[in-house]
Write a structure and sequence with these properties.
heterodimer; A: about 230 residues; alpha/beta; five-stranded parallel β-sheet; four-stranded antiparallel β-sheet; B: about 575 residues; alpha+beta; six-stranded mixed β-sheet; rod-shaped
Chain lengths: ~230, ~575
């Protein structure tokens, strides 16, 4: 089955060109050219991934990103003409999994989409423990006792990666490679923002984390199981 | 020199410093200077006036006294003359009695107990005549021969002389001696001298002088105080003006001076405010213009990005299929591809520069090892250098430490410098040096290529500048690389310097503070290379064996990390 990709971009030429690239690579793209109808298009098509331009007429990309995230964990990749700190961080904080700065090349685009759509590697063990959480790797579920915690696929990947090697300290670069699929120096803000989002969901007190621990000057590691 | 003189007194410093401090105060403080000048000039004036008044009072007083004394003396002489003329004494006993009563009369009439009576030298010898007498205060040479000569020469005259009379405390007091002649019918002619004490007059004078001095001092003090107050009155607004203009100069464009009244100071304040107003308006205008321009550049760059993305995607799709096209089309697609790349880099650099121009650059610093960073950069440029025949070497006697820098920007600077060195290095080796001292860390890139003239080197950081417009860009720099590198260095609080000589090569030296709180930057690396003029660096073997340095040789086949400690 071909993965469906919703392309939200007001520039029709670019949208069409992205469509050509995606079709060549075996995706099924659908298009939406303005912000106001983006959410409806998302609900209609139930895509596997959203490519979202940050600057849109109608509703701006960051707003749409937040709304989609509120109802679904579908991977979102932002397309932005600006890589200024504020804009990118705002986009990531509103729930985008990754971002691409224009102009990008087709290989990069396809690689980013594939990473976000790749099936999780077959788990070595069925369940893992991190802090007081139980991760059901096969069922893509995280539980605290009987309570199910809703994570996006990216957040799940992040937590699973940390939990799979509880003894190891992961640098931001290692996480960028294993979770985001970057094989070169990339933006470590991706990791910082998503660790914050993950903590907001799984920690009792995000300011005093017990599950995703910070190792100062190095990176992150899993909290001790309880 | 004695021991005590050698030992520094605790107060010597401050006393020795006093003249210097006063000189500084004189130079710096208008108030101090004005007060001192006022004090000096009015002091002089008061002194002159005081002297004149004192002198004229003294001479008036003396004249008064002298006239009184002369009159008293005249009366006394007349009374004594009357007494002797009415007497008929002729024998020594009665003459002696007469003399005694004459003396009594003189004393009571003149009011002075200081007197002297001498027999006139021209008087005929008379054994019955009583001898002269004198009171002890007029003894010795106090009555001068001059006075006596005058008295002796003119029996009817009255002569006087200023003298210092002895007083009971063995001191002297000013006085006058008046001389006249007394004719005793039975005994002949006598000289009569009466001394008058002028102490009282002198006391009056000195009391007046004291009063005058106290008055003058009080007047001077009052004048100083008045000057101080008046000067302060005038100076205070000037001080305010100075402080306000300092704040204005420091960039606080909103400061204004208070305008009070309609005097000169109010005019000063008003015109100062006018100046500040127009300055503020002009600066705001320029700032707005600059913001508009920067936003325009930024917007243009962003607006260009979307169509460029489409072109890029299209070009890359075509480029991926270029083998299916006939050769001319295939080449066209290749050109499209490379030029799209170049256009993209240019746009990226333009955007970066516009970000620096807008002042919206924030550094993302993290502890970074510059030696490793240089090694990584060299590795990434390895293939390009090999194509040009240039060998890349890393020499790092120091710098093996974690410096707080933005690694993405510094990596960009190093890659840019390496690119330039490779392009202009004419295939000769290129040496990258890293060193550090306690405050700074430096990296230099040295090539042995064509070099530049001094004028060219001075312009090398200018935007879109080319040393030789006819020279083609082979590596495809955008013309903004060095300008951005300089901005990157400056954003770190560092410097980027260039040394270049035609035919001898070029050195770019990047110096960065090790942490943000370094005040003065002293680069650990020299700008002018020690081997200036050499054709190339010494062979690696000798460098590695002689120096206890880290020589890092980039060798792709054996060492994938590209870094090896010697």
């Amino acid at each position: 089955m071909t993965p469906r990709v919703l392309v939200v971009d007001d520039d029709t030429a670019l949208a069409e060109m992205i469509g050509i690239v995606l079709r060549t690579e075996g995706f099924d793209p659908t298009f939406c050219t303005d912000g106001t109808s983006a959410l409806a298009a998302f609900r209609d098509t139930r895509p596997d991934l959203v490519l979202l331009d940050l600057m849109l007429p109608g509703m701006d990309g960051i707003e749409i990103c937040g709304r989609i995230r509120a109802e679904s964990g579908t991977p979102i990749i932002m397309l932005t003409a600006k890589n200024d700190t504020a804009d990118v961080v705002k986009g990531l904080e509103s729930g985008a999994d990754d971002y691409m700065v224009k102009p990008f090349n087709p290989k990069e685009l396809v690689a980013r989409i594939r990473t976000r759509l790749r099936p999780a590697p077959d788990p070595v063990v069925e369940t893992l423990a991190i802090g007081d959480l139980t991760i059901d790797a096969a069922g893509h579920e995280v539980r605290r006792g009987d309570e199910r915690i809703n994570l996006t696929p990216l957040e799940f990947d992040l937590l699973l990666t940390l939990a799979s090697k509880p003894q190891q300290v992961f640098t931001r670069e290692m996480l960028l490679e294993q979770v985001w699929g970057y094989h070169y120096k990339a933006d470590t803000r991706l990791v910082n923002v998503h660790v914050q989002r993950l903590r907001a969901k799984v920690e009792y007190d995000p300011d005093n984390p017990r599950i995703v621990m910070t190792v100062r000057g190095v990176g992150y590691r899993a909290g001790a199981t309880t | 020199m004695s021991q005590a003189a050698d030992a520094p007194s605790p107060f010597a410093g401050s006393w020795r410093e006093l003249p210097r401090r006063l000189a500084t105060l004189w130079r710096r403080s208008l108030q101090f200077r004005t007060v001192i000048i006022t004090l000096g000039l009015s002091g002089l004036a008061i002194l002159l006036i005081g002297l004149y008044i004192s002198l004229s009072i003294a001479s008036n007083l003396f004249q008064d006294q002298r006239e009184r004394v002369l009159e008293a003396s005249n009366n006394a002489t007349a009374a004594a003359q009357g007494l002797v003329e009415s007497s008929d004494a002729s024998d020594p006993g009665s003459l002696q009695l007469l003399m005694n009563s004459v003396i009594g009369t003189i004393s009571s009439v003149s009011g002075s107990t200081d007197f002297a009576i001498f027999r006139h030298p021209d008087a005929p010898a008379n054994p019955n005549a009583p001898p002269g007498r004198r009171s002890p205060s007029l003894s010795g040479a106090i009555i001068t021969d001059d006075l006596r000569d005058q008295v002796q020469g003119d029996p009817d005259g009255q002569y006087w002389q200023s003298v210092a009379l002895p007083d009971p405390d063995d001191d002297t007091v000013p006085g006058i001696i008046v001389g006249s002649t007394l004719d005793v019918p039975a005994a002949g002619r006598y000289e009569l001298y009466i001394g008058y004490d002028l102490t009282e007059a002198e006391q009056t004078l000195s009391f007046m002088q004291l009063t005058g001095i106290v008055g003058a001092a009080a007047l001077l003090a009052l004048l100083s105080a008045i000057t101080l107050i008046v000067v302060r009155w005038v100076i205070e607004p000037i001080r305010t003006t100075a402080a306000t203009s300092r704040r204005l100069a420091a960039g606080d464009l909103g400061v204004r001076m208070p305008v009070r009244g309609e005097d000169e100071l109010a005019t000063l304040a008003a015109s100062f405010n006018g100046m500040a107003d127009s300055l503020q308006a002009r600066i705001r205008e320029l700032a707005e213009l600059s913001v508009v321009q920067q936003r325009f550049v930024s917007d243009v760059s962003h607006e260009l990005r979307t169509p460029l993305t489409t072109i890029r995607l299209a070009g890359d799709v075509l480029y991926g299929q270029r083998e299916d096209f006939p050769p001319p089309t295939s080449r066209t697609v290749e050109l499209l591809h490379t030029q799209t790349d170049r256009f993209e880099r240019l746009l990226g650099d333009l955007l970066e520069i516009s970000r620096y121009d807008a002042g919206s650059v924030t550094l993302a610093t993290e502890p970074t090892n510059l030696v490793h960073l240089a090694g990584d950069a060299i590795e990434s440029m390895y293939e390009l250098a090999r194509d040009r025949g240039s060998e890349l070497r890393l020499v790092a006697p120091g710098g093996h430490l974690e410096a707080e820098v933005d690694p993405r920007r510094i990596r960009r600077v190093v890659r840019n410098l390496l690119g330039n060195a490779i392009e202009h290095g004419e295939g000769r080796p290129i040496v990258v040096s890293v060193d550090s001292n306690e405050s700074a860390i430096a990296l230099s890139v040295r090539d042995y290529g064509m070099g530049m003239t001094e004028e060219d080197a001075a312009r090398v950081f200018d935007r879109f500048w080319r040393a030789d417009p006819s020279r083609t860009r082979t590596i495809g720099g955008t013309g903004l690389g060095l300008a951005i590198s300089l901005e990157d260095a400056v954003a770190h609080g560092g410097t980027l310097d260039v040394w270049s000589r035609p035919g001898e090569g070029t050195v770019f030296r990047l110096t960065l503070p090790r942490s943000a709180d370094v005040a003065t930057l002293v680069s650990p690396l020299p700008l002018e290379p020690e081997d200036a003029g050499a054709e190339g660096p010494p062979p690696t073997e000798s460098m590695g064996s002689v120096e206890p340095e880290t020589v890092v040789e980039i060798d792709h086949e054996t060492d994938s990390e590209g870094v090896r400690d010697a």
